[in-house]
Specification:
about 240 residues; alpha+beta; two-stranded antiparallel ribbon; 11 helices; about 45% helix
């Protein structure tokens, strides 16, 4: 049951800069050790262990044990959405022409938000699917049209279309307000499937130690042919 106290407890957990830095480092879906997260947050290993214990108790991270190592990862996509929303709210509203989102141009172009595509590329994909009538987004809800599922399946995008259940708790598709673009990209099972497809086809590749994604030359050609998406400079 959600109470004012439980909400305040989550707020306290994400109210520490070191813990926020750790959570942000996990937003690309990776699992990292306590030492790696300590380095990201700029704290000692002992301090990092204390922070991670609190995040674990608050169900914001989980631990995976492999041999002698313990790896930490976000507890689920809902935590990534929480962080993305906080970054959105934390932007300076006083500037009449604010530069929103990350300063890194590559992060602004394409990045992962947990397991789905974000940034300009993620929003462009959402725009294309809406323009084609494959999906519909209204406020905080999204619907995938049968024609959209058929077309995406034909393109090789493996979408799990089963109903929500204990074994399948995520919605098929939902909008996620993009931190840098301030318009929705796609989350849910469809968003994850599109991201996986782009990675497996070599259209995008991950950059080390970053959520940023690099669109490959093959990727730009494929995105143009399949989704009519061209590099931002070429789209103007």
């Amino acid at each position: 049951m959600v109470t004012a106290v439980s909400v305040a407890q989550v707020g306290a957990l994400v109210g520490d800069p070191a813990r926020v830095a750790m959570l942000q480092a996990l937003m690309d879906g990776r699992a990292l050790t306590a030492a790696e997260l300590a380095n990201v947050a700029g704290v000692t290993p002992q301090t990092a262990s204390g922070h991670l214990a609190r995040l674990l108790a608050g169900s914001l991270v989980t631990v995976v044990k492999q041999g002698r190592h313990r790896y930490h990862r976000l507890a689920g996509p809902q935590v990534a959405r929480l962080l993305e929303s906080l970054m959105l709210v934390a932007s300076d509203p006083g500037n009449p022409k604010p530069r929103v989102g990350p300063r890194d141009a590559q992060l602004r172009l394409a990045r992962t938000c947990y397991d789905h595509l974000a940034g300009w590329l993620g929003v462009s994909l959402a725009d294309t699917l809406m323009a084609r009538g494959w999906i519909e987004i209204v406020d905080d809800a999204a619907l995938v049209a049968p024609e959209g599922l058929r077309r995406l399946t034909a393109l090789g995008v493996g979408v799990d279309v089963g109903p929500i259940s204990i074994a399948r708790p995520r919605p098929l598709c939902r909008p996620c307000l993009d931190w840098s673009e301030r318009r929705p990209h796609l989350a849910g099972r469809l968003g994850a499937a599109l991201c996986t497809h782009c990675l497996e086809q070599g259209w995008v590749r991950k950059r080390s130690n970053s959520r940023a994604l690099e669109v490959t030359p093959i990727g730009w050609r494929a995105l143009d042919e399949v989704f009519d998406i061209r590099p931002p400079s070429a789209s103007k």
